[in-house]
TrEMBL record:
Name of the encoding gene: ppiB
Family in the record: Belongs to the cyclophilin-type PPIase family.
Top-level lineage group: Bacteria
UniProtKB keywords: Isomerase, Rotamase
EC number: 5.2.1.8
Protein name, UniProt field: Peptidyl-prolyl cis-trans isomerase
Residue ranges annotated for the PPIase cyclophilin-type domain, each copy included: 1-160
The protein's role, per its UniProt record: PPIases accelerate the folding of proteins. It catalyzes the cis-trans isomerization of proline imidic peptide bonds in oligopeptides.
GO aspect biological process, one term: protein folding
Gene source species: Vesicomyosocius okutanii subsp. Calyptogena okutanii (strain HA)
Matching Pfam families: Pro_isomerase (PF00160)
Catalysis performed (reactions): [protein]-peptidylproline (omega=180) = [protein]-peptidylproline (omega=0)
Amino acid sequence: MTIFETNMGNIHINVDIKNTPISAQNFIDYVNNRFYDGTIFHRVIKDFMIQGGGFTKDMIQKTTKTNIKNEAKNSFKNNKYSLAMARTSAPHSASSQFFINTSKNSYLDFPGQDGWGYCVFGKVVKGFEVIDKINQVSTSNKDEHSDIPNDSVIVNRAYNA
């Protein structure tokens, strides 16, 4: 189990190493390397998702490891409170960023609009009220970034328990 201690409360996540070995191990490695400590949930779209894992509170993007293979064919669904890899329009572009679905987002499931979809590799098991609180924060746009929380949602510490 991974625990994210945020300034809004703790989020407990289970990842599925058996069915999504690449994505789950990638996430675990980032946690073990303390990569997520001090990052923020930098994109919040109400009733869609909250995204984190790549930016400091000053909106400086962190340097990541190599991109990983998209494992969205695992048949897991982008249901509320599921954890998925964030990526660009390129199917195999995921690295450190992830998102937690705050509603059922079936159109992100394999095969999605691009033949790939977004890989779900875990789920929130505790801290649903924290996810729901983050889902409600007010946001604005800054430079080329949109949907940034006006008050930073900070991951103070992430660790595997």
